[in-house]
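Guanylate kinase (Amylolactobacillus amylotrophicus DSM 20534), 204 aa
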Amino acid sequence: MSEKGLLIVLSGPSGVGKGTVRQKMVESKLFEFQYSVSMTTRKPRPGEVDGEDYYFTTKDKFKEAIANGKMLEHAQYVDNFYGTPLTPVKKMLAEGHDVLLEIEVNGAMKVREKMPDGVFIFLTPPDLMELKDRITKRGTDAAAVIEKRMAQAKVEIMMMENYDYAVVNDKVENAVNRIKDIVSSEHVRVPRVIDNYRKMIKEN
Ligand SMILES: Nc1ncnc2c1ncn2[C@@H]1O[C@H](COP(=O)(O)OP(=O)(O)OP(=O)(O)O)[C@@H](O)[C@H]1O
Ligand SMILES: Nc1nc2c(ncn2[C@@H]2O[C@H](COP(=O)(O)O)[C@@H](O)[C@H]2O)c(=O)[nH]1
């Protein structure tokens, strides 16, 4: 085991099932990771808890956090701003925890520039009809917002080529198992494992 945790970035179009898959990853007990809670200017959906699902904030406070260098990345998505607070991610990784970011593609590419050692996974729907069906049946967004999210989904899907892995979310359990295989393989990649031996050799 490396002392420094693995950064796992999970992206994919709105409604593909990122949150559902993450929840199942936790329940499965196949993983040990900490979740990076994002900041957003979006209004909370029913049932969403401040500090757990997101840090809900105003546009002014969001801009202030950017100006003060407090964000690892940030992006505008449809009509709102979203971003990853830097300090908790740095701390969790330094403590050796794997950290999961669930973020859209533009933010993910900014993270890739800063933290190229992370593993970048793109969750795909079985097809676009199914994506629209999922986002509609979720019942959280007005028809106009769904249209905007679907338009953005097409742009995002074409950005999949910048990711390390594509995982199809046909059945949630299948997607979780695929992600488990990816994360396990990343843990035994030579650049991660060799660091432990470097340390051991230096100390002896
Ligand atoms: N494999 C699946 N099969 C069928 N329905 C699914 C599957 N995965 C997720 N869903 C459903 O699709 C809807 C959207 O899922 P979820 O909210 O997890 O998506 P998301 O990618 O996190 O969306 P957003 O980015 O907008 O937050 C939910 O109603 C969820 O129950
Ligand atoms: N670049 C970032 N994107 C983020 C972050 N947190 C969430 N997201 C993504 O935004 C869209 C919309 O989310 P929703 O909760 O309004 O449906 C979705 O793709 C999220 O993954 C973030 O910190 N940075």
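The helical segments are 18-28, 59-67, 86-94, 105-114, 128-138, 143-158, 172-187, 190-203. The mean pLDDT is 95. ok done for today
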